[in-house]
Amino acid sequence: MLSDSTAKMRCRMRKQLFIKRNKVCDLSLALALAGLIFVVVDAELTALSTDTNITKRHPISLLLRSLCLISTIALMASLVNYHAIEVKIALIDSGADDWRVALTTERLIKLAIELLICAICPLPGTGMMSWPFIHPENRKVTMVDVPVDVILSVPMFLRSYLLCRFMVLHSKQFQDAATRSIAALNRISMDFRFVIKTMMADHPLRVLIVFTVSYWICMSWMFTQCERYDGRVPAEHYYLNSMWFIMVTFMSIGYGDIVPNTYCGRTLSITTGIVGAGVSSALIAVISRKLELSRAEKHVNNFMADSKLTNQRKNAAASVLQETWFIHKYKMSCTKGDDLRLRQHQRRFLHAINEFRRIKWDQRKLQEKGNSLLDVGKLHNEMHETLWEMHRTQDQFIAQVDLLTQKIVELQNTLLMQQQRGYLPAPNAACLPLTQSTSSSALLHIPVPHGSTVAQFDSSNLPPCP
Q1: Which of 52, 161, 355, 369 has its CA 20 to 30 A from that of 301?
Q2: How many CB atoms lie within 10 A of CB 339?
Q3: 336 contacts: CB under 8 Å, gap ≥ 6
Q4: 93-121, pLDDT tens digit by residue?
């Protein structure tokens, strides 16, 4: 059993580790973005070498790639520090003393994958490589020279998973201790899935718009890196074409005016199509939910429809009575030409009856639709009223029992006082009065049928007390 001082010390250490973990996560994200910015600037400067005169062997390019390498090494160290803090938090939660208890195989695999993803970066002094290029005219495959930095810079966007971790650790749900406790009691993990679901529930359109625009920009740059080294079009013209191709592929349109000519571009286009299908389905679900009527709006529409059907039913009933009176009138009349009017009013009578039946059927369907809206609320109200009535009856019963017990105690005290004054003889053990410790079950009234021997047994048949 832990003492109060030990528990307080562990809570304090856990809080400090939480704050330190957030700072390490912020540092990791900053280092990842810094390395990515260095790579993007270096790739753009060297791709526009005809205007900037900066090649891969230029000191500026070597400096940028060296800074990217340094930031990558610092990023890997911060990742190791982050998982070390996770192990310390797990030790405090489990109460173990050895760090190897919290260092599970799953955590080691996760650390290895993160280090492998973040270790990818362009190195200073990398040269050129050849990869296949498919000509769109004759579909002939030729080999073109591409910098090795292209192969190493495109996978660097996988570092964006650190942004997901940043969103989780800085979310309102994760920072609130009460929310974390409730989630733990309900066996809900406070991970990125829960956070993104909460954001989609609160601000769905904002989340989808930000994700879509960010995805378009990143994929357009990567697609440009894969496609612009064929030497046919100036490098700066590829950005607009890449943005157009990514947007069209994202929306699953595909006009065919721009096609990927490398296997890298084809891989990115397939990925864009898959992600676009998911985002499009989510957007359709959000729009359909926004267009759906609320409960209050449905109640208003049902009330208006019910009022309209009620008026129509009254008019149909009046038409039935009116046509009935006309039929009776022309049946009793002997004027020439009344037979034609009689048939006409009989047809109107049948039409009024059918219209009355149709309106009744529409009212029945509207009532069933309204009952489906009110079932849950009505059931909740009925349950609340029933429970309230039960509590009220129980309180009344307890009050009556307490009052009866009080009266019996008063009667007992009165008998004891009379006995002490000499008015009554001292009772023996068989004639002791009820004490205050008498249970309430002994005070319950038991109904006895008339005519039984128990009903005829009264106080006159009791044996005298000595």
Answers
A1: 355
A2: 12
A3: none
A4: 777 777 778 888 899 999 999 999 999 99
Cβ neighbours of residue 342 closer than 8 Å, sequence gap 6 or more: 327, 330, 331
Determine phi and psi for 164, rounding to 5 degrees.
Answer: -65, -40
- Work out the number of other CB atoms within 10 angstroms of the CB of residue 361: 10
Q: Find all residues with CB under 8 Å of 86, minimum gap 6, and list them.
A: 21, 107
What contacts 115, CB < 8 A, 6 or more positions away?
Answer: 76, 79, 80
User: What are the angstrom distances between the C-alpha of 377 and each of 225, 382, 384, 389?
Assistant: 59, 9, 11, 18
Measure the CA angle with vertex 49, ends 44 and 52; round to 5°.
90
Q: How far apart are CA 94 and CA 79, in angstroms?
A: 23
Q: Which domains does the chain have, with CATH numbers?
A: 1-126 (no CATH), 295-393 (1.10.287.70)
Rounded to a whole number, what is the distance in angstroms from the first to the last CA of the chain? 63
- Which ranges constitute the DSSP H helices of 48-160? 49-52, 59-94, 99-102, 105-118, 148-153
* Residue 9 tokens, joined: 């010390």
- Has this prediction a pTM greater than 0.70? no
What residues in the chain have per-residue pLDDT under 70? 1-4, 231-237, 334, 336-337, 370-378, 422-466
